[in-house]
Specification:
By secondary structure, this protein is an alpha/beta fold. The chain is about 40% helix and about 10% strand. Strand 7 and strand 8 form a beta hairpin.
């Protein structure tokens, strides 16, 4: 940029776009999901505590619903039939979390679910006049019951690892960054396509976390194949060259078809060819799909999944190189491919970006606090992407929200 003020205008536009994406995600969670956002919850569910919550919730209904309230001195010819709520409705409440936790604001979500419960009862013949119900008091009492549930669940719950959600997205939904909704921030979420069925091969190490494992001693990296990302090459070249074992290295040139096939199949005979590689496609729009009307969309992600790749990381739209470089570095470290701090101070952004060294130090601190790395037990690739999505980039939405994972959780084996 040669014109005066052009750089400042560029940064201002990016920051405005980042804020607009944030507002869009907030609005969609509020208006589309509302109190039903608990369906995405990965909270530990315990049947004994759920029964206790159900008992407390039924007391609230008995107290505030005219259809269930006992009126002294009045006899009815026939008692009203009480409708039993499906346990999954109660789980929606549990999925909202502790309503009394710091910075928690669940009043609107609880109100939404309470109205839904009354609607369900109404539909099944248990009539109530809405203006006769004290919904505010019901919110307060339900909040107390939720608080009791989650306090008890935390006390009796061991360190819960491996919680994971897979979104099955059709052609109308895959373009949206679901993983960056407020209720899914930092949560392990991956995607799959309706027609794909990724395999989960066996072979987990006895001491490792259960799941699909890949060795850090074999693989292929293709760095700056188009030759136009000198800063990216400088950021990752030395670290990637230090990877142990038999790694294929293609740098600053386009791979041949044979090299690409060997990288994806592990060099297996052609008759048995299948994509065995986990693929990290850290480039622009690498996870986008092309719409073709009534037919299913197509794109690289679909090809990788149908070919059998366990997991593929890509971006839903175009991203800038320095910000996505910071994201990639954070994923490599959280996943366990490189030690924490390997990319501290590298890939620095010009302008108003955060100091990468400070961001890397914060990532190390958070990783230890969250137990992401304990006794050499690293996070899955999906967990690593989720953590980087919340911490690594200057633009948390414009860049980080673009990154998604298709497939299953994959772990690094030393």
């Amino acid at each position: 940029m040669s014109q005066k003020g052009a750089t400042s205008e560029w940064w201002a536009e990016r920051e405005e776009l980042d804020e607009r994406i944030k507002q869009l995600l907030d609005t969609i969670e509020l208006t589309w999901l509302g109190g039903f956002k608990g369906i995405f919850s990965q909270y530990h569910k315990r049947s004994d505590l759920l029964a206790r919550f159900q008992k407390a919730f039924l007391v609230t209904l008995e107290k505030h619903l005219p259809s269930r309230r006992q009126v002294r001195g009045r006899k009815t010819k026939k008692p009203t039939t009480k409708v039993n709520l499906d346990p999954r409705i109660l789980e929606l409440f549990i999925g909202l979390g502790d309503a009394m936790a710091p910075e928690s604001d669940l009043d609107d979500a609880l109100m939404d679910l309470l109205y839904f419960v009354v609607d369900v009862l109404q539909f099944h013949g248990e009539a109530n006049a809405y203006d006769e119900i004290d919904f505010d008091s019901m919110v307060v009492e339900t909040s107390s019951a939720l608080h009791a549930y989650h306090c008890a669940a935390k006390e009796g719950m061991k360190d819960q690892k491996g919680a994971h959600t897979i979104l099955i997205l059709d052609k109308s939904l895959h373009v949206f960054p679901w993983e960056s909704l407020p209720c899914l921030q930092g949560v392990a979420v991956s995607r799959t396509l309706p027609e794909s069925d990724p395999e989960e091969p066996s072979g987990s190490a006895p001491t490792a976390r259960t799941g699909h494992h890949v060795s850090m001693h074999s693989g292929t990296y293709m760095l700056n194949p188009s030759g136009d990302l000198a800063n990216t090459q400088a950021t990752f070249s030395r670290a990637l060259a230090s990877l142990p074992g038999a790694w294929g290295r293609i740098e600053a040139r386009t791979p041949t078809e044979a090299e690409f096939r060997a990288a994806l199949t592990g060099g297996r005979p052609r008759a048995l060819e299948r994509c065995r590689a986990v693929a990290l496609l850290m480039g622009c729009s690498s996870a986008s799909l092309t719409h073709v009307g009534q037919f299913e969309p197509y794109g690289p992600i679909r090809d990788y999944m149908l070919a059998g790749s366990p997991a593929v990381v890509g971006t839903l739209w175009d991203v800038t190189d320095r910000d996505i470089d910071r994201f990639a570095g954070a994923v490599f470290e959280e996943w366990g491919l490189f030690p924490h701090g390997t990319f501290a101070g590298k890939g620095a952004a010009k302008g108003k970006g955060k100091a990468p060294a400070v961001a890397a130090a914060q990532r190390r601190k958070n990783a230890v606090a969250a137990g992401a790395v304990r006794d050499g037990n690293h996070a899955s690739l999906v967990e690593a992407v989720a953590k980087a999505r919340t911490e690594a980039c200057k633009f948390k939405y414009l860049t980080a929200a673009a990154v998604c994972v298709y497939g299953i959780p994959v772990y690094i084996s030393k």
